[in-house]
Each structure stands twice: as C-alpha cells, then as structure tokens.
C-alpha cells in the first residue's frame, strides 16, 4: 500500500471512530455535570487514551445513518417498552398467573459486534426479556423470556428479536448488512405464508 493510500486509510479510520470519541467525551461531561475548558480537554484526552492505549475489540462503524430508520427504531422501542411494561404489570397482579418462562437461543443475521451489542441492549430494555449470554462466534443471543407457554410464544419472541436487529441494521448498518437483512426478511415472510393454510 502506497503512502497516500495509507494516510487516506488512517483518516478514514479516525473518521469512523469519531462518533465513539464524541460519545465518550459526552459521557465524561455527563459524569461531571459541568462544562468548561478543563473538563472538555480531559474528556478528549481520556477518550483518545481509552481508544488507543487500552485493548478493545475494534468497533467498526459503518459511517452510515438513516435518520428515518433511526426515528422508526426509536418510536418502535418506546412502543415496545410501554406495551411490555403493561403486560408485565398485568401478569404481576394476576393471582392466577403461573410463571412459564424459557431460555431461547436466537440466531442473529449479522456478525457485527456493534449490531449484536445494540440488539442485546434493546432487547434487555424491554420488560419481560433479558439477554443472559451471547455467543459471539456463532452470532447467537440467549435470552430469558417471560410468559412463553407455547411454541408460538417462543417463535413470536424470536421474531421480535430479529425485527429489532433488522431495525438497527437499517438505521446504522452497512449497505451489505441491510441487503442481507431485507433478503432474510423476505425469505421469512415467504416461509410464514407457506405455513398458513
């Protein structure tokens, strides 16, 4: 690789890590609850130190953000949290309800660490489900799901996880990931239509 190509590659790497650096500086400012020159400078120094000195798995950002898909993701997350909170509240006060829960393995469609992490966080935020383990090598999420009495309940939970992953990929994933997720969605819908009488 020639020197100009190496410099372009280095700048591209810095540009892709910029959102992570900004996020770390913002977190630092929130922790101090005070914005002045010293706090901002120490936040920038610590953000650079954390990303350069400490060993961290590389966070490969796609450099792409779809505002419309991001808005839909946020609105759907709020809807899911409200609905699940009401469902869990009803189950908690229902004296006849007997818990029937499951540990479910869900095969994700992407292998991106960032998408996997965001999917796990989004699933755990919704009451009634919590991610208990991640198999990073195989792209599996293991989650504890409340109220899974039948195979249909388990399948609905799986579809919910894959739907969350799909919305995250369409909002911030690479173009190739978005294409793969859309194809998997079409195949899933086709198989569901084939099963319905």
From TrEMBL:
Subcellular location: Cell membrane
Membrane topology: Multi-pass membrane protein
Keyword Transmembrane helix in annotation: yes
An annotated Gene Ontology molecular function: monoatomic cation transmembrane transporter activity
Source superkingdom: Bacteria
Family matches, as InterPro entries: Cation_antiport_E
Coiled-coil residue spans: none
One GO cellular component term noted in the UniProt record for this chain: plasma membrane
Pfam families with a match to the protein in the record: MNHE
Membrane-spanning segments: 14-31, 38-55, 75-93
Keyword annotations: Cell membrane, Membrane, Transmembrane, Transmembrane helix
Presence of the UniProt keyword Lipid biosynthesis in the record: no
Family to which the UniProt record says this protein belongs: Belongs to the CPA3 antiporters (TC 2.A.63) subunit E family.
Name of the protein this chain belongs to: Na+/H+ antiporter subunit E
Species whose genome carries this gene: Agromyces mariniharenae
């Amino acid at each position: 690789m020639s020197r100009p190509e190496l410099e372009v590659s280095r700048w591209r790497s810095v540009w892709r890590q910029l959102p992570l650096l900004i996020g770390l500086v913002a977190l630092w400012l929130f922790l101090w609850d005070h914005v002045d020159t010293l706090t901002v400078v120490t936040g920038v120094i610590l953000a650079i130190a954390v990303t350069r000195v400490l060993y961290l798995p590389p966070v490969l950002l796609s450099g792409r953000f779809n505002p419309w898909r991001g808005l839909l993701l946020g609105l759907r997350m709020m809807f899911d949290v409200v609905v699940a909170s009401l469902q869990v509240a009803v189950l908690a006060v229902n004296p006849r309800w007997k818990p029937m829960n499951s540990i479910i393995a869900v095969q994700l469609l992407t292998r991106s660490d960032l998408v996997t992490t965001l999917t796990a966080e989004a699933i755990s935020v919704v009451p009634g489900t919590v991610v208990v383990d991640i198999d990073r090598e195989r792209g599996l999420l293991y989650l504890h799901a409340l109220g899974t009495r039948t195979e249909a309940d388990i399948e609905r939970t799986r579809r919910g996880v894959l739907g969350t992953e799909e919305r995250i990929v369409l909002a911030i994933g690479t173009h190739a990931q978005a294409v793969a997720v859309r194809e998997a969605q079409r195949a899933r819908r086709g198989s569901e239509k084939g099963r319905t009488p």
